[in-house]
Amino acid sequence: MSADDCFHWIDDDSGYEKWLSEHPNGFMANLNREPHVKYFRIHRATHRLPDRSNPGSSNPRTGNNYSKVTTEKLSDLLEWAKVKIPDLVLGEANFCKACNPASGESPEFAPTPETQEYIFLADQLVNQGNVPRPDGVQQPQVKYSQVPHYYRDPKVRAWTIQRSGGECELCNSPAPFLMDGDVPFLESHHLVPLAKGGADTPTNTAALCPNCHRKIHLGSNRDELTEMLAIAIAAKESQVT
Q1: Are 203 and 237 in contact (CB under 8 A)?
Q2: Which whole-number Å values give the CA distances from 140 to 24, 25, 100, 151, in the listed order?
Q3: Which regions of 106-241 does DSSP assign to beta strands (E)?
């Protein structure tokens, strides 16, 4: 891979948007139509803050005085800038502070103690397409108020929803309904509870229908169900290459 693997989008919003949808782990840069040292800002492909480059025009993102560059690897984007804008001296101002493209971890999808945010971010990841298997967190952080709230990784939830194929991973029934974006409604369950030292990882997380989720917590046979679920999840994870 090199600077030659970058795409410079000019007057082509549809092609640019299609590339972003197909490369959720990629990177992009905002810049002038003619590359110049005065404007070169790098983002992750998943960055979705409003783009006000050319409001009201036929190509508001890649038209008029502006353009975009995309690539799968940040190193290729930096090489492109080096070749096309030789006078550019990259610094902190060239990297978006919101999506933090220079970091190995995007703060946009970082673990969160807020349940609604956890579900919302995971749904966004599922809607973007294929979810890479995350490592998760062996010892999740905890936020204390009146009760403890653990930081759960939305990437782990997104992976388990994808892994489930839209079916409860205990009873194998279809999710009871679809949410916005046709994301199946399934609840996240940790085989070993986080409060008991369980990890927030794919091997310790399952996607369950609401009925099975209540049953595995409250049913008289919950220990047997937990063992069955653990075997099923281990079998699925063993197939991951």
Answers
A1: yes
A2: 25, 24, 22, 6
A3: 142-144, 148-150, 187-190, 205-208
**Is the four-CA dihedral 208, 24, 240, 133 of positive or negative sign?**
negative
User: What is the structure's pLDDT at 108?
Assistant: 61
- Residues 24-62 as b/e (b if ≥16 CB within 10 A, e otherwise) read bebbbbbbeeebeeeebebbbbbbeeebebbeeeebebb
Split the chain (241 residues) into runs of 10 and give each run's mean pLDDT: 78 91 88 93 78 58 89 90 92 84 68 80 78 86 79 94 96 94 93 94 97 95 96 94 58
Using alpha carbons only, what angle is made at residue 232 by residues 169 and 159, rounded to the nearest 5 degrees? 55
Contact by Cβ (8 Å): 101, 44: yes
Q: Distance (Å, rounded) from C-alpha 60 to C-alpha 67?
A: 10
For residue 130, count CB atoms less than 10 angstroms from its CB and return exposed for 0-12, middle for 13-18, buried for 19 or more.
exposed
Q: What is residue 212's DSSP assignment?
A: H
